[in-house]
Amino acid sequence: MIYEDSVAPLHQAGQVVLWDGQHRIDEHLTLESAPGHTPGPSVLRLASRGERALGRAADERELLVPAHFGGTGVVEVRRDGDRFALAPPTSFEAERA
């Protein structure tokens, strides 16, 4: 039912792009196939001004909402030398006071 009333009309109108492997959306966004335990998973990669999304997330204290993470489903990205670490988000309340 979902395909017939939601996806099929878009496909018939030519508004659907079918892709396999990798699909570049624009200069900053790229979809990549990420095979897993279910068919069709993908990863959306973001790069801007030569930076990767994790670098910006760590520098700006932004939160990341990845798929298939337990707990709250939200993680904070932190720099760990030349790598990144994911951790439960810290409280932002102290900064607001």
From TrEMBL:
InterPro entries on file: RibonucZ/Hydroxyglut_hydro
* Source lineage: Bacteria, Bacillati, Actinomycetota, Actinomycetes, Streptosporangiales
| UniProt-recorded name of the protein | Metallo-beta-lactamase domain-containing protein
SUPFAM superfamilies reported for this sequence: Metallo-hydrolase/oxidoreductase
